[in-house]
Write a structure and sequence with these properties.
By secondary structure, this protein is mainly alpha-helical. Among the domains are: 36 residues, no CATH class; 95 residues. Helices cover 71% and strands 4% of the residues. The protein has a 3-stranded antiparallel β-sheet with strand order 2-1-3, with no helix packed on it.
């Protein structure tokens, strides 16, 4: 509330002078109605989404105009949407839970890559990108488990176990003839086996409890 020293009254207004005597008001105004506000992060994400849509539309027009096809537009569409989803998840979730952020991001990446491969048939996705993600997850989660074991033991064991399962995904792609180069899938499988053996040898009780909890045994 603002106060007029001359009239000795309080006024809830944005004006700088008293409406009765035109004297200068003191104090601050408290809005009667809540002022709508947009968080800077939400505004940034909305602008980013807008630019992605405009970019996809522009590339689609340029791509379609000469030969009436959308050859490159599909790559831009998949890449733009994938990038936006990952950035949105990063800004919304990363600061709240760094422990499971990379694991959840990897799941999102694998889902997006599956859709990307479905539309583009880009073979490098199955041969190198998917195995590369699973290898990175296994290495990263194992290192973080060793660093933060005392504080987040149970949670990291859960993430490592899930990453071990994902470590066999590239091998499944080879068996289904979706991946043609078996090198990285084999490395991913070996890392998964080494990781699960390490848990069995060094932390068997925690691993047993986690598996029992996951499968309701």
């Amino acid at each position: 509330m603002k106060h007029c020293n001359n009239c000795n009254i309080d006024i809830n207004t944005d004006e700088k002078v008293c409406p009765l005597c035109q004297s200068r008001l003191t104090g601050d105004c408290t809005p009667i109605f809540p002022v709508p506000s947009i968080k800077k992060l939400d505004l940034f994400l909305n602008i980013l989404l807008y630019l992605v849509i405009i970019g996809i539309a522009a590339v689609g027009y340029i791509d379609y105009y000469p030969d009436k096809t959308f050859t490159y537009s599909i790559y831009v569409l998949c890449g733009g949407i994938s990038g936006y989803i990952l950035l949105r998840y990063f800004f919304k979730k990363a600061r709240k839970d760094w422990i499971s952020f990379f694991f959840n991001t990897s799941i999102i990446c694998l889902i997006l890559l599956a859709g990307w491969y479905y539309f583009t048939r880009f073979q490098l996705i199955m041969d190198y990108i998917v195995p590369g993600i699973t290898i990175f997850d296994l290495v990263f989660s194992t290192i973080m488990a060793l660093i933060l074991k005392q504080r987040y033991t149970r949670k990291y064991i859960h993430i490592i176990v899930m990453n071990v399962f994902f470590g066999f995904v590239p091998l499944l792609l080879v068996l289904l003839h979706l991946a043609q180069d078996p090198m990285l899938p084999q490395i991913s499988m070996i890392l998964a086996v080494v990781t699960i053996l390490g848990l069995i040898i060094f932390d068997f009780n925690s691993l047993k409890e986690e598996i029992a909890r996951m499968f309701f045994i």
